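Record minuted for completeness.

…
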Amino acid sequence: MIFSSPFMAVAPSSRTWVSVWLLPGAVLCGGGLLSLVLAWMLQRTVQTMAHERAVHRIDTLVQGLEHSVNSYGEIVKGLQARFSVKPYLSRQEFDATMVEMDVPRRYPGLRALTFTRILAPTELAHFEASLRADGQVARQDLRIRFAADRSEYAVVDYVWPLRGNAALAGLDVYLQPESLSSLLQSRATGKVSMTAPFTLLQDDKDPTGVLIRAPVFVTPAGQGEPVFQGAVNISLQTRELLLHALDAVQLDGVAVTVEDLGRADQQPGGENLRRTIYRTPNWEVSNATLAPVLRDIALHDRIWRVQLLPRSALLSQVESAHPWLMGAGGLGASALLALLVALLARQRQQARQEVEHTQSALQESMDRFHDLFHHCGMGVSKVCSETGRLLQVNQRYCEILGFSEKELLRTNVLELSAPEDVDDTRRLLSELRQGLISNYLQSKRMRRSDGQLIWVEVAASPLLDGQQELLGQHISVVQDVSERRQLQAALEQREARLSAMLQALPVGMLMVDAQQRILSINDRFTALTGYGQQDLQTLDDWWKVIQPDASQRQTSRAWVESARREAMVQGVMPCCELAVHCKDGKIRALELSGSPVQSDFVFTLMDLSQRKQAEEKIRNLALFDMLTQLPNRRQLLERVHDALQHCPRQNSAGALLLLDIDNFKTLNETQGHDQGDALLLQVAQRLSHCLAQGPHTGYTLARQGGDEFAVVLENLPADPLQAAQQTEKLGRRMMEALREPFILGTAPCHVTVSMGATTFHGTGETVEELLKRADLAMYEAKSAGRNALHFFDPSMQSAIRARAEMEADLRNAIEQSQFDLYYQPQVMHEQVVGAEALLRWRHPVKGFISPALFIPLAEDNGMVLQLGRWVLHTACRQLAQWAQRPGLAELALSVNVSPLQFQQPQFVQDVEQALASHGVRPDRLKLELTEGMLLSDVEDTIRKMEQLRGLGVAFSLDDFGTGYSSLSYLKRLPLEQLKIDQSFVREVLTNANDQAIAKTIVALASSLGLRVIAEGVETAAQRDFLDANGCHAWQGYLFSPAVPVAQFEAWVAQFSEVGHSAIA
């Protein structure tokens, strides 16, 4: 056997050895040399990178140091300007300047800020006294702080902050040579200067510091030569200054030293000696990895030198090792490439040996295929996928179809297929030929030599060459399954009979396995629940749909599971009733039972609807009237009892009405009981419809028996009068509904009813007592002439009768046009600007009836809609007439609008029609709305007002201040005017609250851009007060009451002629 390892050779010759290893050796040497060169170049690059990082760090440090020193220089420059203007600041002004410049927050590293003042010897005593007065120094002899007598002294005057720096106050700078040198330098140059490092008096822990000072010159008045007054000084600790600058620099791996080289204008030598200001502990030149980097910087008039000494290469371990890693990687890659070249050369040598082994294996495989093909227990054939012609068949294939091998090789599979399967076979051949399928399995019928069709299973796969390309042929394996098909058909027929039997059962069946999976459902189950096999997969699915409530489902399922476990022992599950939610949304009562079948379980369902219907029918017979299907007397008593219990809990009232058909006995005897029953049924239907259309939701309509009906009302207002009014209103509506003729057979029949009513509050009344009261009231109605409604309470009956009379009079007044519009003028200064149209009712017998009486009644019964339309059209007609008269053409007319009228959907159209039909200018019409409208649909109110405002109609808010106006809505309303209610005007001269309210309304209107008018103005003093406070429009008896149109027109003419003062 020859192994294929590349490292094993079969007696290679010397020539072969050279051809295999020479080229890999050359590759290895060349790659190694290139790798070393690359490593050397990368090392140079890394060293350059380290130097650049050191330069970047020292530049960052220098920039931070320059920025810190320059920022402190800005302070002394600011104070220099302040002292130049005012050299003798007070201590308070000096401290205030520090706060104004926000020094404590912006410059936290500042040690002390002082002002050194130049003093003559004669000024020392005064200066000493001022220092002692301010308490900046201890009470001791200050002269010990001053040097010998001189012509001038440089003394520290102002000190900030004083805490920790009190030792500086009164100090003579001539005692400090370093500070004196800087002072003289700044005086000579007039520029900001900085001292050499020296010891700070006020700091014991870290005394080394510097001063930055700016000279202060003041030019005396009338002289041109400025006089040196002193200098503003800042003392800084050099260590804190440098540490602040070093915070921005990464110091890992570096050492830093900072030196003072002296003043910038001095030559080397003398004071220009190096002074080390700061040095990190790790400074040592001998251990540095790179040369130090230095920078000289000019800080005002000093030169500082900053040196940075790298203690390491300033590189990460990866960066430091990168050149060597690249070199090693290159060497490794060269070795791998050389090894790869050697492998390729060796594999080429072995390829020839592998070809011989492949040919031998192929021949062996062909032999095995031949044995398998001809000795297989199933029919095997090789078929041309293009034509379907059989290219090769085995003996079993011939036995299955009854043909000889020669006969089969002259035909194709399409000719052997049954006619019904030819198209399907042709399609599969096409898909095999195109490579669309890699195999297929087909059950089909094939023709035997004797013409018989047999069922076979055909499995086919395409043949591929060595490159996995299609050869246009496929192998087909055929197996005779005729006997198996017969057995399967018999089994399916048996199962079909069993399934048909289960589906025909009169009970619903549901079979589940041990894993709660639903195996089958019969048709009766689907008919009962609406759910089929496709809707339910598991028993959990069934429970979720039949009982959606989780709590109810848990209870029911626990009982059923318990009964199911019992059935596994007893053999039968006890029956239980189950409320099932069907698929159509209905709830059906079903009886659930079941029994185990081996490891499965069969549930059965029976419909209980008929039994439930029978029980419901019995219940209806007990509680409902059979003729009208209304609650009977038994249920009526229960409802009255419940209403009595309900009233105290809800703080409401209830009512009981008894209705008796007048003369029903006569009709029943003359026309027969069938006609009487028909009338009772129609009365019940008409009463039910009437109650359903009304505003009451809590009511019960019942038939007591015979021709007597009862109505129980709940949730009425607790106020007895209001409860009686609503009861009376409903009773009238029922009587009105029953006035329409009934059709009995073909003839109309007119009937009337007598009603008795009583209200209750559940405070001690009994059901029997209420029935007696209503019955007495009903018989009182019959005694009064029938066709009437009577209340049990006499006083309440009187109030109801008076209201009924007024309602009848109001209806007649509308029909007979008993209403007029009166006009009350509205005056602004000395000019009549408009009028308010007020409705008046002149009763032919009772005379004038107050609007306070009939307007609320009209709003309750809806007649206000008719009155409102009449007022609107009458006002527009009057405006049209005034438009033809010069003295009245410019008057605006205000019309009051009821909330009910405004809420009508067609209100905007009604106004448009009134304006158009009379040809009136819309801007002459003003609609007065009440604040109560804002409590309803505000958005609808605003929308309608904006529509009418778009036409030009104006709006005024009537009785402002008496309702519940929301300012957030008020500013959104398209109003033109606010009207101050007369209740505030009446006592505006004597009541401080009314005065405040009137002024507030005027101010509010002014801020919203609205005009104001006051109603109820009766005296000139009231008018003058309102005029003085910004209300320039008035309405009231001071000018005129509301009068008919003729008197109003005459009054306007007189007012225009003689003036306001004459009339008022």
